[in-house]
Amino acid sequence: MPDPESLKRAKSHALRYLSYRDRSNWEISQYLKKKEHPPQVIQQTLDYLTELNYLNDQRFALQWGQYKISKKKLGKNRLYVELLNKGIDKEILENTINTLYEDNPEMELAAQCARKKWNTLKGVDEEKRKRRLVQYLQRRGFSADIIYNSLGELSKAEPFESENYFPQPSSPLDQD
């Protein structure tokens, strides 16, 4: 049986760490290890927090995923790796990702990212522009087929985004 004072300190550390944002079991466990709490105390603290529903990997994965999709526009691959690195169980992870991307189709997210990035690459050589866009979307975690489709959509829209998008000012002689 661990020392009650040690358990109290571990609970206090964990609650303070949870006060900033929701965390996974693994994150809390690593944090408490870093604080040099014994394994038995860590396990009791995790059990206590789970019992109070302060720790819930399913809820954490859903909240983290929603945030990353809405703010960062991440693809499935990147979100999968991020949640895996947070210690989320693969079964929970796959269910969460399927749920999240039903509401937010990955193709739409990729298209939004592609349009935004494409506009920032004006004035860059066409091949270089495409290469940079592909690399950007890969870093965001989109799969090759989704990236390819996004490029196809941009190519269709490209005639409307020509270099002469802004009308040239008329000369003073043309005015009446």
Textual characterization of the structure:
By secondary structure, the protein is an all-alpha fold. It folds into three domains: 4-51, Arc Repressor Mutant, subunit A, CATH 1.10.10; 57-103; 106-160, Arc Repressor Mutant, subunit A. Helices cover 69% and strands 0% of the residues. It has nine helices and no strands. The chain has helices spanning 4-18, 25-34, 39-51, 57-72, 76-85, 90-103, 106-120, 126-139, 144-157. The radius of gyration is 24 Å and the shape is elongated. The N and C termini lie far apart (95 Å).
In short:
This protein has 176 residues and is mainly α.
The residue ranges in which pLDDT falls below 50 over 5 or more consecutive positions are: 160-171
- For the record, the CATH class of the largest domain is Mainly Alpha
Helix content: 55-70%
Count of all domains: 3
Can you lay out the helices and strands and say which pair or pack?
Layout lengths: L3 H15 L6 H10 L4 H13 L5 H16 L3 H10 L4 H14 L2 H15 L5 H14 L4 H14 L19
Helix pairs in contact: 1-3, 2-3, 4-6, 5-6, 7-8, 7-9, 8-9
List keywords for this structure.
Arc Repressor Mutant, subunit A; mainly alpha; 69% helix; 176 residues
